[in-house]
Predict the structure.
Amino acid sequence: MASTNELQFMPLDLDTFTGSERFMTGTRLGAAFSQGMRAYLRAAYADAIEHFKAALIAAYVDGEEQAQIYERERAIIYLYIGNSLAFQDHWEEALREYLEAVQTDPQLAEAHYNLGVAFAALGQIDRAIAAFKETLEHNPNLYEAHFALGRCYQRIDDAGRAYIHFSSACNARPQAAEPRYYMGLMHQSHGAHELAQRCFAEALRVEPTFVSPEPLPDEPLVQRSEEEVAQWYYRLSQALKQQGYEEEAERIYRALLQWRPQEYAARYLLGNLLARQRRFEEAYAEYEQIPPQHRHYVDARLRMSAILRLQKKPKQAYELLFACARLNPHHGQLFLHMGKLLYDMGMNTQAARAFERAVQLMPTDAQAHYLLGFVYNTLGRDTWALAAWRKAVQLAPEAHSLRFDLGYMYIRRGRYDLAAAEFQQVLEQWPDDLETQFMLGLCYKELLEPARAIPLFEKVLRRNPRHAQALYYLGACYLQVGNTSLGKAYLRRYDHLVRQTATMNGNSRSRPVPSSRLSS
């Protein structure tokens, strides 16, 4: 296989005369620059350097107005001096000139690119990558920068980024064969000969006269086990996904499956990728091909059921999971999701049984205990719901939404002391949560601690002056502490708000009751 260890890039030239004609005639600067360009074009680089340096000196000492040059033009001269040195393999000196160019005009993309070329020639790959990235900041479609980045990343074995920049180079210059050729070398070095041949053929298709810069020697191709080659596909796809190039990752998965149709892990990962893009029918088709004996079978069936649930087909989703559970009776997640589907279909008693089985199989799963408690609550089994939620909070003490619901359940049972303890912990994490402030205030009122309830209700009303429940209970608290005038004032505001609301909604006035934030 051809070597990919040497990174050799050509410095870029510029259309220097464009916009610079004003100093090209009748000045010592113009004469020196013109002589430098003529020497440069005939590859007399030593002479070109002397003339370009003379041009820079003339720009500083020549008093004529025409000899005054802009920073862009000065940077271009530095760039050509650097190129003249680079073509003589004097890379350290060229590097200094390119640094002068980018410092003089930081917006000159070609100067950043040539700086990267110098770093690459000196073996400083990380700095070369940084310079090429900076180039793309100023010219995102510069073919040479994308190609150079692809080669640099290939050098440090970062296959994902190499693949991305080679692809971007192909997009920037569709008739360029070289990036496709190097993509082929990258695949071939990992034994993916089918992908490699596809890239080589594509290179010749877009550029029939292409001659490889590194001809393949007459030696055996890299030989790797099928498993090693498959892992290359997985690693490359994962790298592409992590960097947000899902279309490219999909292409690699499909190439792997074309080569090995029974690579079921790839089908599962491809299904996940398609599902994230909301291509549910395609994802379902990939999941469906995974056989029962495969390790991803259950997870695939769970995802298939989720797709059916999104499509408002709970019965079909349940039947799919039920069939899977018959083959995998000890998989707790199956029963957890079956319980959700049964609840969706209004079969709460059956849902409770499914959640009970899930809890048996996954005794440390907080969500399973929570959902079991939720269904018990809907069935009116408050004691059982309370026990399930206590366990859920014990397993997931940071689940503050669950603590809120547990506190509400304590209120329903008249255990305001226990409810207050839960709401206090919720407020420690969510100090601005209005509803928690209200519920804690309610607990203090019922515990005959109106002095602690009053500031909480007042906080609620500062943020929501039309919170009828807070008005009612705040008035009641002030009556409890003996402040009759203020208590009556709040109750009058409450009566006025309720009458106003009733007039708008056609409802009769009623005493407020607290509400839970239970979720399904």
User: Anything to note?
Assistant: The mean pLDDT is 87.
